[in-house]
Each structure stands twice: as C-alpha cells, then as structure tokens.
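Example for tutorial group B:
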C-alpha cells in the first residue's frame, strides 16, 4: 500500500522519496536498524518511530516492526532496549558483554515506552486490519507497563526510574551528571569504543561518562539482571521526567485499547496507574527551576538545569495552569535563543553544548512528541512553530541523527531512520499533522 504522493515541484517530494528509501535500506527483514554503521541492531523506541514512518507507506510492515521488537521481551515483562539478532563485531557493547540469557540476545535495560501509543496510532489507521494484531500485542504491552510500574519505582514513589543513562534514551544528558559522578569507575574492564569510528568524538559522550556506563553494565550483569535489586540498591537510579511522561501517555493509549478490546481487568489496573499521575508530577516539579526535572532517587536532588523532556508533561496528559505558564515561558525562551529548537538542554545553562549529543542538540523525535502534547493541550501556535522549524531543519541538512540548534547543521549519524520516519509521519509538508484519534467505542 504505497502512500499516494501527488507529483509536485515542492522540495519535500524528493525528501519524501529519500526518507522512504532510508527506511527500506535499513529494513533487515522485519526489523529496522537506526543506522547501519553506528547502530546495527534493533533499538526499542527507534523501532516504534520507524513503525510510525512505515505506517505512511506500508501498514503491514509497520505492525511487523512492533511485533519483532516484542521478540526481545523478557519473561518479567521488560521489552529490552536493544535486540541483537546478528553478530555485528563492529558494535560495542554487543551481546557477549550484556549476557542477557535471552533468545534472541538483548541488552539488559529498557527504553522509553512509546510502543502503546504507536500501536494505537497503527490501529486507528485501519481498525479491521489491525484488530487481530492488536489482540496479540495487548498482553505484551500491559506486561511491559506493569514492569515499569513495579520494577522501576522505589519505596512508595511513582516516578519512573532509569537505572542507566542509556535506559532514558538520552545517554549523556546533564540530567544524569551528578548521579553518574557518584558511580565509581575504578576497575572497569578495559574496552574499545566503536562509536568513535563513525562519529567525531566531540559529538559523543566523553570517556569519563563511558567508563561509568560500562561500570553500570558490569553491575547489572553481576546481579544476573535482577531488576528489583538494580532499582532498589544499584549505583544509579534517577527519576526521569522523559520516561515518566511517555509512560503516562502510553498508559492512556493502552487504556483506550483495553476499552476497545473489552478487557475490564486491564482497564482497572491501568486506571490505578493513572490515578497517581498528579502525585508523580508533584515529585518531579522543581520550584527552583520552575519546571519538571530529573531527580536522583538516592539523594532526592533535582538536576541542575531544564531538559526538553520537561515539555512532555502535555504529552503525558498533565494540565496545571500555574505550572503550564512557567513551562511555556521556558519553551518560548528555549526556542527564541536558538534558530533550530527545541534544544535538548537549556541553551542558557553553562552545561549547554550545541553538538554534544543530548547536552544541547535538537532531536526530531522529541520535537514530534512535544508537539503532540501541545496539540492535545490546544497550544496550536507553539505546535505549528515547532513543526515548521523541524521541517526547515531537515530540508536544510537532511536526515541526520540530530541537529545543532544554533545553525541547524546535521550531526551524529547520517541517513538516520528515526529522522526519516518522523519526516514521513509528521514533519513533511505533505502530511496532515493532526494526531487526534476518534473516541474508542467498545
Ligand atoms: C543512542 C540514543 C538513543 C537511541 C540509540 C539508537 O543511544 O541516545 O536514544 O535509541 O542511540 O538510535
């Protein structure tokens, strides 16, 4: 089912074609690589954005992407952050480092759970086509959400912890600096990084960070990937507004799907999770920053600056008049300070670095998620502004992994699948970007 793209002289037409070929070139038969050189396996949330992109041109293939990701789901419910299907010796840390004991081999962590939201999108595109596939996927999705709500919360709290910066999907964000500095890297097994063979070191996490990333992997492996122990006692546990708001949103979408399927027990369980949403938000709100912020669960300390995921509260479905005014003030400030926002970290903070991965650059997937939330909250002007910036940035530089917010230069890996997918599903001027769903009736 090829998307019908009208012949047009608009520059986006070529970009639409290029985006489609990037998805096809990285399709390794049922699953898609984020980028052939840098990331040659299946990554969790990348795949879900890719599914959204595929749903514009081939709905069947889009469902397959989600189904293949869940082949990496563990018995305890965790959908792993990487699924290693072939041995790619050029990638580090590969399956032998993780020792997940799962088949197919996986990493030992998870990633932001956008899947239920995307599954709902696929289902809404063609309900009769998706009905059986939804029925199969639903128990897997709810099991994964249950894993987050039980295994990644601490002592009566409800904010979702990440136990490794990689789990957040925002590897070297300043949000993790203080908690990561407390991880002692002494004695880490010597290793050779492979990412630096593909991308300039100035754009990637530093060696200090990387030593600690590896130390955390060694710790998880030493517990036999006992996630209760890792969350409660491990060297790193930070409540992440990104993953927390993404899960909140996914819970709402899962609830709509449970309603559709008539799963009353599931409905009840999901409502229980959603009831705590405002308590969770209170925990993550920093009066000092006037924004939601990451919080170290071992010390209670907030991150020192504001990350773009603070603006995902709208996507999570939270509304709070006084807080929202402050958040929107920051959002406008972030966008006004640079030409190609949303910068991933406060552009006025001393730790802002415009090209170093999650310490400042703009990411098309985050722009997309924030915008969905803004649209839901009726903030159309801000939503349209961000969409136009994203469109301009990709037209200027191509389908890079991320972008320098100051001048829009593409950075990291080129021909990156999630940027291509977001283009097809949302940023291209050819798309009618209204993600609203009709209500679900039993
Ligand atoms: C990096 C990103 C993460 C992404 C992965 C594959 O680790 O930080 O969000 O999923 O690359 O693209």
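The residue assignment follows.
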């Amino acid at each position: 089912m090829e998307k019908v793209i009208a012949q047009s002289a608009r520059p986006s037409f070529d970009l639409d074609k290029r985006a489609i070929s990037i998805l096809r070139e990285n399709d390794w038969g049922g699953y898609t690589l984020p980028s052939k050189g840098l990331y040659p396996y299946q990554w969790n949330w990348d795949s879900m954005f890719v599914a959204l992109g595929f749903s514009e041109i081939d709905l069947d293939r889009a469902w397959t992407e989600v189904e293949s990701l869940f082949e990496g789901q563990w018995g305890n419910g965790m959908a792993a952050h990487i699924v290693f299907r072939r041995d790619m010796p050029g990638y580090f840390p590969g399956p032998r480092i993780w020792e997940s004991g799962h088949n197919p081999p996986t990493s030992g962590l998870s990633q932001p759970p956008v899947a239920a939201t995307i599954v709902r999108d696929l289902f809404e595109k063609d309900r009769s086509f998706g009905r059986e596939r939804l029925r199969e996927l639903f128990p897997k999705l709810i099991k994964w959400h249950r894993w987050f709500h039980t295994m990644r919360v601490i002592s009566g709290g409800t904010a979702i912890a990440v136990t490794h910066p990689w789990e957040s999907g925002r590897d070297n964000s300043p949000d993790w600096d203080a908690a990561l500095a407390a991880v002692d890297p002494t004695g880490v097994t010597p290793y050779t990084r492979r990412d630096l063979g593909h991308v300039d070191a100035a754009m990637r996490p530093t060696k200090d960070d990387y030593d600690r990333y590896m130390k955390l992997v060694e710790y998880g492996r030493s517990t036999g990937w006992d996630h209760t122990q890792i969350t409660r006692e491990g060297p790193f546990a930070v409540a992440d507004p990104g993953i927390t708001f993404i899960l909140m949103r996914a819970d709402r979408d899962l609830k709509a799907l449970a309603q559709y399927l008539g799963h009353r027990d599931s409905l009840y369980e999901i409502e229980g999770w959603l009831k705590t949403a405002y308590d969770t938000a209170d925990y993550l709100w920093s009066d000092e920053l006037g924004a939601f912020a990451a919080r170290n669960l071992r010390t209670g300390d907030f991150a020192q600056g504001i990350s773009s995921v603070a603006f995902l509260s709208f996507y999570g479905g939270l509304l709070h008049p006084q807080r929202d005014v402050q958040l929107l003030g920051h959002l406008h400030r972030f966008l006004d300070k640079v030409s190609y926002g949303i910068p991933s970290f406060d552009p006025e903070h001393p730790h802002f670095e415009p090209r170093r991965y999650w310490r400042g650059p703009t990411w098309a997937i985050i722009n997309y998620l924030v915008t969905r939330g803004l649209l839901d909250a009726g903030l159309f002007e801000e939503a349209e502004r961000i969409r136009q910036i994203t469109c301009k940035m990709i037209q200027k530089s191509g389908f890079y992994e991320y972008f320098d917010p100051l001048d829009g230069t593409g950075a990291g890996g080129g021909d990156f699948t999630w940027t291509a997918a977001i283009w097809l599903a949302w940023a291209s001027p050819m798309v009618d970007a209204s993600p609203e769903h009709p209500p679900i009736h039993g």
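The pocket of alpha-D-glucopyranose is lined by residues 34, 39, 43, 45-46, 169, 171 (CB under 6 Å). Compare this with the pattern of hydrophobic and polar residues in the output above.
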